[in-house]
Structures are given as C-alpha cells and as structure tokens.
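ugh ok so i messed up the first submission bc i forgot one of the chains. this is the corrected input, ALL of the components this time, i swear. 896 residues overall. if the numbers dont match what u have on ur side tell me asap before i send this to the collaborators (the ones from the other lab, u know who)
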Amino acid sequence: MKLSQYFLPILKEVPAEANIISHQLMLRCGMIKQTTAGIYSWLPLGFKVLKKIEEIVHDEQIKAGHIPMLMPTIQPAELWQESGRYDDYGKEMLRINDRQDRNYLYGPTNEELITDIFRSNVSSYKDLPLTLYHIQWKFRDELRPRFGVMRGREFYMKDGYNFDLNEKEAIDAYNRHFVSYLRTFNRMGLKAIPMKAETGPIGGNYSHEFLVLANTGESTVYFDKTLLDMDTGQGKLDYYQNTDIKKVVESFTTPYARTEDTHDANIFLEVPEERRIESKAIEVGQIFYFGTKYSEPMNAYVVNPDGQRVPVHMGSHGIGVSRLVGAIIEASHDERGIIWPEPVSPFFAGLINLNHRDEECLRVCDKVYEELGTNGIEILYDDTNERPGAKFAKMDLIGLPWQIVVGPKGVAEGKIELVYRSTGEATLLPLEEVIKKISTAYKALVKD
Amino acid sequence: MKLSQYFLPILKEVPAEANIISHQLMLRCGMIKQTTAGIYSWLPLGFKVLKKIEEIVHDEQIKAGHIPMLMPTIQPAELWQESGRYDDYGKEMLRINDRQDRNYLYGPTNEELITDIFRSNVSSYKDLPLTLYHIQWKFRDELRPRFGVMRGREFYMKDGYNFDLNEKEAIDAYNRHFVSYLRTFNRMGLKAIPMKAETGPIGGNYSHEFLVLANTGESTVYFDKTLLDMDTGQGKLDYYQNTDIKKVVESFTTPYARTEDTHDANIFLEVPEERRIESKAIEVGQIFYFGTKYSEPMNAYVVNPDGQRVPVHMGSHGIGVSRLVGAIIEASHDERGIIWPEPVSPFFAGLINLNHRDEECLRVCDKVYEELGTNGIEILYDDTNERPGAKFAKMDLIGLPWQIVVGPKGVAEGKIELVYRSTGEATLLPLEEVIKKISTAYKALVKD
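and heres the new structure output, hopefully the right one now
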C-alpha cells in the first residue's frame, strides 16, 4: 500500500481523553476514532490488526476441533427470561424495544442463544462432544467506558460453548480451551498467564482468566515466577488426547497464580520469596465450566447411553478480540511508538523513500515494493513528500517490524538500509539481500 | 471435516414458515436457524458460505483500490440529526436508549458516520480521491421480515463511500464501483444486470441497482436480452484508467434495463420484440452518486487547488452480503437441493462412504480425505453409519460441486465414482485420477 493512497490520519498531539498508552497510540496512529463514549470506528490500520487477531483466534479454535458459526447481535428477551438472567444482568445489558414494542437486547454474551440452538437440534449423546463458537460484536453498557478499546461498550469477542455428556468430558473441553488459549496468545507475541478466577455473572464451578502483564492493567495479580518460563511447546498437538492435555493444564495450574479476586496471601507466602511476583495485568480471556446451570432451566437434555434424559454439561470460553489490540500495544511499545509482533502487524514492513525527487531512489523503491508485493508480503510504502525526519517518526510510531530505508547516498553505493524496529538494529545491505531477508522472515511467519 | 464431528442439523420436513425455495433449503440444510422474526443464527454450514462471499467482496473492493475499515453497529442520534435523516428515516430505524437515556440507533447505513470520520481527518483535495468501505451488520426494523435472510432485519452488508473533489471525479468512482460490482457477482457465479434505479432514502442524482434473475424475486424488471451475453472480461483491469472504465459502464447502460420503479413502457417498445425480456429479479447491490447531500449539512469541506473551501462530492455503494446467500440459492438449485457455484461452496467436495463397515472402503476414504486435505481442499466426509440412499440425498441437498463416492464394488476394481453435482454426470475412475481431477479443478478456482 502506498501511503499517498492510504487513509492513515496520524495525530501530532497526544489526545487529552486518552489516559493509557495503548489508547493514546491507537488514536495517534489513526487506528481508531471514537464515535461516542465506548464505541469506536476502526480506521484502516486498526481494522487490519483486528482482522489478523481474529484470524489467529479462528485458526487456533479450528485446530482444537471447535466449530465456527455466527449468532446475531440482537437477541429476544424471552431466552434470557428462561435462564433467569434477564432481570439479574442489570444495567450493563442494553435493552431494546422494536417498532412493535417487543423486548430485545444487544447480546453481552450468548449462553442462552447457543443453548437454544443446541436443544432445538441435538437430543442424543451420540452427537457429543460438541463445541461451537463465534466471533461477534457484543455490547455491555458500561457506566464509565475507558481505556479505549480495552473497556469499550461495543466490543468484539470470541465466545465458545462446549456441550458434553458429563462433568468429566466437559472438563476435557475446558482443558482443551485452556491449552488452545495459551497457544492463541503465544502466537500473538503475548505471554498470558492463566489464573484461578471467580465466575461472576456467567456462573459455574471452575474458571480461569488469562492475564497479560502490563503496568497499566486494571487487575492486580500474584503469581509464581516459574510461570514466566513455561510454554505449551511448538509442535502439533492432538487436542483429543485428553490425558496429555490435562497434563499441560496441570503444569500451568500447579504454580501459584491468582487475581486479586481469588488471591490468598497465606498460600502465596508458601512460594519462595524470590519467585513471588505481584504485578498489574490485563485480562484477555476467560474460560468457565458451569455444568447444568443453563441446560436445566432451558431444558437442554440428551439421552445418555442408558436411555435416560440428562441435562447436558456446558462451559463457555471467551477471548477479547478487540481488547487484545490494546493489550498487545500495552505489552509491546517504547517511547517512540508501537512495536508490533510480526503475526499481528498491520503491514509486514515499511518502506521509506528519503528523497522522492531522486529518480534512482524512486526506481529502487518501486522495485522493492513490487518484488515483495509479488510474494504476498504487505508493505506500507511512504511515498509522500514529507521530510525524512517526519517519515522516520511516523514509521516508528506505527511500529511495523521491519523498516526498509532508501536514500540517495546508499543507493549510489547499491545499498539500502534495513532496520529492525524492536531493537533499532540497522544494517546497510545490497537490495537483493534485503529482499531475501524480508522474504525469509515472512516465510517463517506464514509457515506457523 | 468429518460429518460425525460436524454440526449439520438436516431437517427432513420442509419448514412451514418458509415460502421461498432458498429459505426452505437453508433451513433444511442446517445453514441457519431463526432466532426471532427476521434475525438468524448462521449455523456452521451457512457461516462458511457467508464468509466466502464476504472474502470475494473484500477481494474485489481491494482490487478496485478501495480501503477496508470497520464502523460500529451502534451510532449516536446526533449525527443523524445533523443530516436531517433522524426524523425522516421512520420506523425502520431501530432506536435505542442507553442506561443514561442517551439516544442511539442500530445503523441501517453509514453515510453520516463516514462523513463524520472524513470531516475530522481530511481537509485538502490532495487527500482525494478516497473510497472507504466496510462489511458490517446492519438493522432495518422491517414490519414484515420475510424470505429468510433475503429480507431479514439484522443483515450483513458491504457499504462503501467515495469522497471526491467534484462531480466528474465522483462519477469516476461511481463507474469504478459499477464495474467492480459486476466482477464481484460474476465471481460468485451470478449474472447480475445493472438497472437504472430510484434513489430512495439515500437520495441523490444517479443510481443503479444490480439484479439477479429469479422467479421468486420481489422486483419486476424489463431489459434488453443482449445484456445476458455481456460481461466485463476476465483480465486484469486498471480501475484508474477512467476512460476505459467509463466505456465498460456505457456498454452496460446503453441497452434498456429498468426496474418497475423506473420502467418506461414507451422506451421499452423501441427494443426489438424478440429481445424484450420481462422477469422477476432479486436486488443484490446498489450504487448512488448524491453529490453534496451529506457534505453540505455536515460541513465536510476540502480546500481545492484554488484555495477555496468546497463541499466534497460523495456516493455510496452497497452489496447485500447475507442476502446474496439466499440469492445464489434462488439462482442455482434443482429439485434435489442446492447447486453451489464453486467459489462460494461451503466445501469443495463431498466424500461418501457407502459401507462404513468395509475396511477397504474406510482405507480408501481416509486416503482421499487426507490427500485432498493436505492440498488445502475442504472436504465434507460423510463417515456416518446412515444408509447410502440417505447419504446421497443429503449430499445432493447441500449441493457441493463434487461428490466422491466410495463403495465396496468399485473399490474391489480399484475405482471410485466422481459425480458432478450440477449435471449429475458420474464417472468411475481410479483413485489417483479422482484426486488429480479434484486438485486440478481446485487450483483453477484458487488461481482466480
């Protein structure tokens, strides 16, 4: 994409309404524009990041054997009256009357709707296990929306629902979500730590939240430092080897890790002092097992192998897709701007022409832009007539992983500069080398 | 995907509430489930089709140089009061009050919101031309929602907006949309005919609707038969060669083609009788040029090359993404079920095992499933223990382009059957031949 043809409204000033760095940077980079309190338009650059995050979430869910679908944003009140949550949910639920004065709401979550779909179509244990999920806009009418897209009112969320014959199998599904979530966040360059959590308005028996450490987080968390060094590995995983998956979950749930809601200072003291960490953090996902809390009142029963009708066991599992855009920025930026992890970066590399009047510079830029483009690599080419300093500052601000800098001096020597945004490391290389290096890095990314 | 692990709730009966064939077939195939009047959940099979259509729309828009972004579903009333449409829009607008009793609405379209984004960020002719678009859920509170997803209340739409310095350049953008829309529908296997249209609540000077012929269409259309044989060609198109693009538009707008709203019986009589066609049709897209209708009241001005502030010229352009799912089925089905055009088919091929107890059949099915899967081809493998007749009927109903049939008799001879759904043509071929044929057909599709 040539910047002269793009829509990237960079703000020079730090917007007064933004208190945290991700909100400031998203506004400055022209990623979002507030429509009204807690509701945002995703401008082209922000939309690209949102889509990349969405695709990673889809991909990891499908790898875990979960089935994508899509429920609507508007739901009838009747379903929530059946579960008993219509009155319980309180003022955060956006209630709506249509032209015929029937009662609806803008879905804040989908336990009722998915349970209705399940009970209308499934009646035998033979169709289990089943996990359905969707990624859809939700609404929670927060009294004080804040922190930009991190605590907006209209937000984009992945929510998935498992249906199982009994508690044991539902816990298998819980564990599958646990591990797939770790992998999902890991692929976005995030270190997310699972922590024992309270269940809140979703209800239920077990719950874990996934938290990303960041000074600006709303939550305070307490955990054993060993968790920082753990991961789920890179290889292929069979999510239906339940014993193996359970072992991964156990390894992550054995060290102490709790949010302020579940924190127990006495147990925490048993962790050796040098490994005790207290930090601020941002919640990016949460999983729940809640047994028959919805299936019983809503009559979602299946016939079991003994011919008896039993209520199905369920859990629900959420990832804050729009919130992740902010969380990633909170976790990955410096004083000059954002540092995008490659898998979620809006473009893979930026191309800066230091002298748009120099024919050789133009020729080399066009060549880099075309050759990389032919390989499917997305390049943001700053072909404007701004001065070099402004171009560098802008490219650092929007934080693409690689910067390719073409100037008259280097070009005279047959060289261009390749800069790695996260370290600032810059090397002067022949054109072909730069194209090769970028192509290799891109191939390594796409292979994952 | 193995059917035993999928969620595909096939209905045996034709649902009573569905009056038209696409609605009946979508319900029978387990593509959608009605949540409440005019609001649907997209079950896994339906969601896959919706996504494929969405991707084609994105792809063709990007080829035309238009920039994707995303606006929220909920909009503040103030913006619509500025344009004067808040009162004009009537009861089809879903009006919403939040917990603090502020006025919002669920966007039925986005002229106001995009104009607000434009005026906040663009002030010079140098940033033009600019076309921004998004694909987002909309709501129109129809009094009588009907025809399934073809006239729902919550629906998925691509809407794009061009901003130009003057009428001439805005018409270039109009023409660009005209041609890119023809290509978009063509890629979905549809013959869409552009017809002179009225502008309705969007307003403006010019408008064309794109209509697909179908006996069940709501509109009556009148056109010159020559239009049926015209297309935009297959080659690469430079959308910014305005004169070339204009010629394509002129070739499509010269023959008579009008909806009942704009029909003129006297002019129609000038078409030679054997070429006069009257038909029912379904509207799948519409484009508008409306000049300064929104930019003037909403103060969206730019400085022109002479230093004067002038209101920007605009148009808006819509494609009914969710409606297209129904429209494609209306245009492509037979008495046994849907016949998906390859580019929008939920899976590329179906695989039927005629005897799930036969080890050779199982082995061959697994081999076909894995080899095609490795090439990225999506296969729906009916591995259930239903009888062959039921499997054939189900596969015909959901209408995947290719069916691969594995039975004990053929396998004993080293052969399996390949059936082309649209013609019913069946050939018995060696396994390797079938894999090669399917792979070749798939490659031809992906190349486009």
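quick check: The mean pLDDT of chain A is 95. that seems consistent at least. DSSP finds 13 helices and 23 strands in chain A.
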